[in-house]
């Protein structure tokens, strides 16, 4: 835990005396907004998505301290939930299971926030229909389709977005065209962002950090009476010279490496869905076939000494099928079904002149049922899964495992103002695939004998009090991952935390304060960022303050303060504490009444030009590691035209 958690709480109280946050509590998903729909789910608000439309996932999650994103550039961004790497969560995009086991120097699942309709995080306790191996929860992204964007009564529309950020001279342009003719609707989207290397808070250029990103989407849909079919494809590409270790500024000592190499990242996902949109209480089936792939090529640069330099190609892909039905039973909504997935990790390359090729596979089939409902003052959710998993190693070794998963969560509305929450889950994860860049000659017959079937254990307990426009929340949680894979060994990873929240709403605005203090251990001992690489991070104590207010007709002002509290290292082999920092972002957004189809936004990020490395980035506990510094002050402008 942090050196001064009480100080953080007092700091938050001084910033927002007597107020509280309506952060969705506990067993409900972590809220990126404060919109609670009638079903009890929490969804990302349009305002949160707008704030991040020309940014990255770091911008999307920056107001939530228990969801941290490391990496100063998009290709290196990695999401952590309560200190646990998203590789240990069930991650999906439009229901397509993601194979996010790539390279520890890059991110895992990267998505353009401007495409998003919603983003949902189930921290720890996730439902059975979230997918296989939701060991520490789930993370689900949903992208927009034409019906989400078309104005009532119109058959065609479009949206053009352009932005310019001063730090790095980053220019962003996006165009979406969408329409509907009869029962058929179409969305076509493209985005391009380019720029130079940015400067840090001390004015020093951070080499090879310029934006070079392309994002695209194509969505086709048709309505056939009570049935809807939709085919969607999204993609993200980043191809540029980056630091040799893309998520680091450098390392003093160690293996000599060049300063730079080329990284070419290509992520894409395709989903075909057929579902019944009408409801009769018993038969509301959905069939979803999807494929996702992440491909990363790295190329060393040729020199006079090495005319045939090393290169690496890693591909992680998943093909999945889900067949499920939603129906009403005794006042509860029940989802029951079957899912099956085949995931692969492949590596090919040349290292020190040797040509190498390795591959691991995993096939999983699961049956699941999840019930959600309300009985008197109690909201409940409970589910079961049973999975059979076959893992095939580099040398063709077969490891068959099977296991059951269970989850349960309740919210007891004690009074009109007070509710108590509790939840628990035990989740089977089978034998895990290695990250593709970690694959090696694991061909010995007993190479995988030390690995066991991974299992996640999650517990959550909390309370929420609401009175008028004031909401207070508190929760404690514990996540334990047993036999989680690290190379060819099985380790035990644990995260313990508490979270406090306060929010005050008023006419035209709100202020929300969130505090999270998390301790991550490995095999029962304090861990370093190297120890938990690809397993988690060391978030420590984080505090955020988010505020937004509509000053007048069409004019909104707001901002976010992020405060990371200095964290003592508890690992035996580290030599540096995690430094604290405070970063302030502010914005103004204007929609003129005479131009109701235009939005202008001005923003200043890192207002006080702090020089810092994000707490979720690698290496802050090692003096010899130069972390990837975040951008210094940047003034940006964005314009959106809807037509």
From TrEMBL:
Any one GO biological process: siderophore transmembrane transport
Keywords in alphabetical order: Cell outer membrane, Membrane, Plasmid, Receptor, Signal, Transmembrane, Transmembrane beta strand, Transport
Family: Belongs to the TonB-dependent receptor family.
Recorded coiled-coil stretches: none
This protein's name: TonB-dependent receptor
Membrane topology: Multi-pass membrane protein
One CC-aspect GO term: cell outer membrane
PANTHER family named in the record: HEME_HEMOPEXIN UTILIZATION PROTEIN C, TONB-DEPENDENT OUTER MEMBRANE RECEPTOR
Subcellular location(s) per record: Cell outer membrane
Domain TonB-dependent receptor plug residue range list: 41-137
Signal sequence coordinates: 1-22
An MF annotation (GO) of this entry: siderophore uptake transmembrane transporter activity
Listed InterPro entries: Beta-barrel_TonB_sf, Plug_dom, Plug_dom_sf, TonB-dep_rcpt-like
